[in-house]
Design a protein that fits this description.
Strand order of the largest sheet of chain C: 1-2
Number of strands of chain C: 2
Largest sheet of chain C: 2 strands, antiparallel
Strand content of chain B: under 5%
Structural class of chain C: mainly alpha
Chains: A alpha/beta, B mainly alpha, C mainly alpha
Low-confidence stretches of chain C: 216-222, 242-273, 282-315
Order of helices and strands of chain B: HHHHHHEEHHHHHH
Number of helices of chain B: 12
Strand content of chain C: under 5%
Strand order of the largest sheet of chain B: 1-2
Structural class of chain B: mainly alpha
Oligomer: heterotrimer
């Protein structure tokens, strides 16, 4: 299914203050891939995501979703196909009930109310929070908020899910639940995170960004075990594959 | 500090109460809103010397509290928190109007009568406003406002403000706590950092607004707010509003306590 | 200075609601013309900010007490007058609903007193005048200070007028004015200081926020003239109408509908009423409780005012008090019975 690919060609972007956040980034993501984008704070991950979503427009280069260029004109179509989950669920859950929040997207695309309800309930079911549908977002726990935020995007039935730090600020159990959720989705996934153990488990491909440039792009196992590369980019190996802190013996 | 947590708890409590499923909660939100407004109009249309005639209006909040299974204490507490302001204005009345009137053999000044009248009115009006939220909830009230043809833009903005109050109150709470931990013994924020304290929060609020806007536009928001279907007003709802309005207007036209009193004392006199 | 429902009459409340609705409709039209949908979330979140910021204790040096932010002035500086006004309106609605701060029928009064004067008078004519030659710290300070103080003074004055027109208190005009204005001068100075400090900080950190608002939201001369002219006409018409009402019925501008209805009270069809009027006529000891009663010793007072003494009149007071107590007892009993009934129902359901 070629129309599900996401392609980035020679992307450049500078902020008005002159800071060059993205320098000549290119990659191609195929249908069904799940890609982790990692890098230190300020490496340019968030800017890259904004460029993919068409919130920002590049100074040079282009973003292609399927065969469609991301431009102002194609935005409504693009945004139906790319669903982005924000880092802080409080930014994403802006309505007064979970149901209305999940319905916000479908309603904006003028679907009739029966179809909206169908999509909302499916999305809530998928993340396992149908029982919370009438709750106010400010009364949810961190993990519930995260699930609700993911549902708001699923109800748009996107082909590609883009997630910014999906496991930040979650307790271990909630984190595990979100990870299992991510693994269960068949969508193409792009995940940025500093939680490299999560990335290790959920992604089959990793793109490492340092100072606005791609420094590595390859299979997860290869990149996340390359201690030198990670160290150079302000990162470190996932704890789960580091040597045991108690006895010092290697796990692999 | 307690003020901050109190306001937050109050919002959360009312939000919780609004999620109950009693017959009152199930009434159409617009019907409840209009009934409340009719009630308020009836109560405040009484003159400043009316006391007795206000008493039948106690029925409405009492019945609603009972039917909607609401806790009495927190609702009354809210009313008591508002009353001091009214007392502040009303307490001066006795000073300015000391014509006396005989009331059951005791001389009472007009001023006290006015004061009592305002006090009762305040209690009644505040209670029913809070009952409206506690039995309806903000999202359904917003739907009712939409039915009254209030512009979508205003309703959406109202909902957003309501949604982010708790987020920002928590932020203020954390900031004040961090401040007071490093400034022991200070009652409030020192004048030298008034600007930066609130200003930092504004800048963060701006950034949050930007992110919220992004997350809205990524889900197809183009400046128009699309609400879902709003339930129709049923026969039950109509009966509800008609019944209460009839009661409010009857109590406005006739002096119900006086009728009861006459009936009672009249019987005794025979 | 939130007006409570208990202090206003339906006429004053209704007129102010209409005035507020007009100003809000105009503001919404203005914002929609700007076609800036980015502003809607900004307004929403800034509303929440002001709500939260109102809870910050700013300690006032040398007084040992602390002041608070109202926020009307700050909102119009940060968002422009139209968005600022609408945001203030949302805040006040939530305060009325959830906290009982200012009533629902007094909502119009409150939006007008706290939003209109700051956003449509103090901001365009005072703040913008001081900053007309560009912005710097000194100008921001003077502009915020003067406009906050004047905005609050106008609001406080408006509270006095609304309260007096409503006629629910005995406070004489002069006394009330002397009470309100100085208090709000103090409040206004704190408001001005906080606003100045915050605006200066934001201007230094993100100058584009303040400058963009100042340029983009300029109020066109023509439209503002129209608004003011419309307002003036409204004030004259309303003022004239009100004073006519007030003179014909000093007691709170009662609806004439209720008055006429009140006079024909016992001639009503109801059988209970007939029985009651019979009892009443037989027990001559209990005087007529209708509006005709006129036994007050202060006969110099206008008849109109005395006619509003139905429930307190010495003779009727016995039945009035008895009836009042019985009404209350009945109300509480009703509540208890419903509760008991409900509890039993729940038990059988379990």
């Amino acid at each position: 299914m070629s129309h599900h690919k996401l392609e980035v060609r020679n992307l450049h972007f500078s902020y008005p203050d002159g800071h060059e956040a993205v320098k000549n980034i290119s990659f191609l993501i195929h249908h069904g891939e799940s890609v982790g984008i990692i890098g230190a704070n300020g490496a340019g991950k968030s800017t890259l995501l904004m460029l993919l979503m068409g919130v920002l427009f590049p100074d040079a280069g282009e973003v292609l979703v399927g065969d469609v260029h991301v431009t102002k004109k194609t935005l409504p179509m693009i945004r139906q196909r790319l669903g982005m989950v924000f880092q802080d669920p409080d930014d994403q859950l802006f309505m007064t009930s979970v149901y209305d929040d999940v319905a916000f997207g479908p309603r904006n695309y003028k679907l009739d109310e029966a179809e909206v309800e169908d999509r909302v309930m499916k999305a809530l079911e998928l993340v396992g929070i149908t029982h919370l549908k009438d709750r106010a977002p400010f009364k949810l726990s961190g993990g519930e908020k995260r699930a609700a935020a993911i549902a708001t995007v699923l109800s748009m039935q996107p082909d590609v899910l883009i997630m910014d730090e999906p496991t930040s600020a979650l307790d271990p159990k909630s984190r595990r639940r979100v990870m299992n959720l991510l693994k269960s989705f068949e969508h193409t996934k792009i995940i940025t995170s500093h939680d490299l153990d999560m990335v290790f488990e959920t992604c089959n491909r990793i793109i490492v960004i340092n100072k606005g440039e791609i420094v590595a792009d390859g299979i997860t196992e290869e990149i996340l075990t390359n201690a030198e590369l990670l160290d150079n980019c302000g990162l470190e190996m996932p704890l789960s594959i580091q040597n045991c802190p108690v006895c010092g013996c290697s796990k692999r | 500090m307690t003020k901050i947590t109190n306001s937050l708890n109050n919002i959360w409590l009312l939000d919780d109460l609004a999620k109950k499923g009693t017959s009152i909660h199930k009434m159409h939100p617009l019907v409840k809103l209009v009934t409340t407004l009719v009630y308020l109009a009836a109560v405040i249309s009484f003159g400043r010397y009316d006391i007795g005639r206000l008493l039948p209006y106690v029925f409405y909040p009492v019945v609603i509290i009972a039917l909607a299974e609401l806790p009495v204490v927190p609702v009354l507490k809210r009313v008591l928190l508002v009353e001091p302001f009214i007392i502040g204005i009303g307490i001066l009345n006795p000073l300015f109007d000391n014509h006396t009137v005989m009331l059951g053999g005791v001389a009472i000044s007009h001023g006290w009568v006015t004061f009592l009248s305002i006090f009762i009115k305040c209690g009644l009006t505040v209670v029913v406003s809070i009952l409206l939220v506690a039995t309806t909830g903000m999202d359904k009230l917003a739907a009712a406002l939409r039915m009254l043809k209030l512009p979508k833009l205003f309703v959406l903005q109202l909902l957003l403000t309501y949604r982010y109050i708790s987020v920002l109150i928590e932020e203020v709470f954390r900031m004040q706590r961090a401040y007071s931990l490093r400034a022991p013994g200070q009652k409030g924020i020192h004048i030298s950092i008034w600007g930066s304290f609130a200003g930092q929060l504004i800048l963060r609020t701006y950034e949050r607004a930007q992110r919220v806007y992004q997350s809205m536009s990524l889900r197809g928001f183009t400046g128009e707010y699309n609400t879902g279907k709003i339930a129709r007003i049923g026969l039950k709802d109509f009966a509800y509003i008609a019944g209460w309005s009839l009661f409010f207007i009857t109590a406005r036209i006739y002096d119900v306590p006086m009728l009861i009193g006459i009936l009672f004392t009249g019987v005794i006199n025979k | 200075m939130h007006m409570a429902d208990a202090l206003i009459s339906p006429a004053v409340g209704g007129i102010m609601l209409a005035a507020t609705a007009g100003a809000a409709a105009y503001s919404i039209k203005k914002i929609q013309n700007d076609l800036d949908e980015k502003k809607i979330p900004l307004m929403g979140v800034m509303g929440a900010f002001v709500f939260a910021a109102q809870m910050i204790n700013f300690s006032v040096p040398g007084t040992g007490s602390s002041g608070h932010l109202g926020g009307g002035m700050l909102l119009s500086v940060l968002l422009g007058p139209y968005a600022g006004f609408l945001t203030m309106a949302s805040i006040l609605l939530i305060q009325a609903l959830f906290f009982g701060d200012g009533g629902l029928l007094a909502y119009g009064c409150n939006v007008f007193n706290l939003g209109f004067f700051t956003c449509f008078i103090a901001y365009p004519y005072i703040f913008k005048w001081f900053t007309r030659k560009g912005v710097n710290s000194k100008r921001i300070f003077t502009a915020s200070m003067v406009s906050a103080v004047i905005g609050l003074q106008l609001g406080a004055f408006s509270v006095v007028i609304e309260t007096l027109l409503s006629g629910k208190t005995e406070l004489p005009f002069g006394t009330f004015l002397l009470l309100m204005q100085p208090i709000h001068l103090a409040i206004g100075i704190v408001e001005g200081l906080v606003t100045a400090a915050v605006v200066t900080f934001v201007w230094k950190a993100r100058p584009e926020i303040i400058e963009k608002t100042a340029v983009g939201e300029a109020i066109g001369n023509i439209s503002m003239k129209k608004v003011l002219a419309g307002l003036l006409i409204a004030v004259v018409v309303i003022g004239g109408g009100l004073s006519w009402f007030a003179s014909s019925s000093p007691d709170g501008l009662e609806w004439s509908m209720f008055k006429t209805a009140g006079k024909t009270e016992l001639e009503a069809q109801n059988r209970i009423n007939e029985a009651l009027s019979e009892i009443q006529s037989k027990t001559a000891f209990l005087p007529d409780y209708s509006f005709k009663a006129n036994q007050d010793e202060n006969s110099e007072k206008q008849a109109a005012q005395e006619s509003t003494w139905p429930s307190i009149n010495a003779g009727t007071s016995v039945s009035g008090i008895t009836g009042g107590i019985m009404t209350l007892v009945l109300a509480v009993l009703t509540g208890l019975i419903i509760s008991i009934f409900k509890r039993r129902k729940r038990k059988t359901a379990d």
